[in-house]
Amino acid sequence: MAASDFPLFGDPSSAPNDPPAASGREVPPPGPTRAEVLTAVEARLLATFGEPSGRAAVTFLGAEKIEVLRFGPDADGLVRYTTLGMAAAPMADPTAVVADPVRGPRAELVLTLRGGRDEVLRALAVFAATPQVEGLVVAPGSSLDLGEPLWPGAPFTSVLVGEGGMGVPPAEGWGMVEDLELPEPAEAVRFLPLLPMTPNEAAHKRVRGAAELQERWLAHGTDLRDPQRRGVPLD
Is residue 130 part of a domain? Predict the structure, then answer.
């Protein structure tokens, strides 16, 4: 996956020089535009990880384009993949009658793998498009199931959504990104780590909960960045 530039999302309807509503055009809602959010998100990622070593874009029917940026490998051989585009719009409450275009949680996803697996970019784009396509709110403790290996030959088919700063394993090894504050009334963008799960781990999480699975990972010293690790003992 060679490094190359792709255009940021833009919303022509929210240009700063739009005429007022009296001219027959709707006044943009308060808060940052899509382009402003994504510019700030990319700047935060570059400030945290440096220049990306690769980037690609994926578009799904009925959804805005999602980019995946690759950073690394670093001195420890860790490669971080981050989404760019998920935070362009807030995630809407699926029970809401009308989605708020400004207010609501925003997030991007971060996956850390030792040695990297570039084929994972499609899975990341699918997960990042979930709020647009399925109307789901992706939050810490939730799981995202691809229904197939995250990359060819992977022992994982789903991920647990972590929380920035969580110690599974120590946070410094996971490349945590500080929350990005946006102009009010928009909420901050959170950068949520994805923790790959085997099918058995995913089933265990559904029955026993995310906290219990995380405790097992900690107790067994599981390196969740290992793309070839075995599932943690669940007996």
Answer: yes
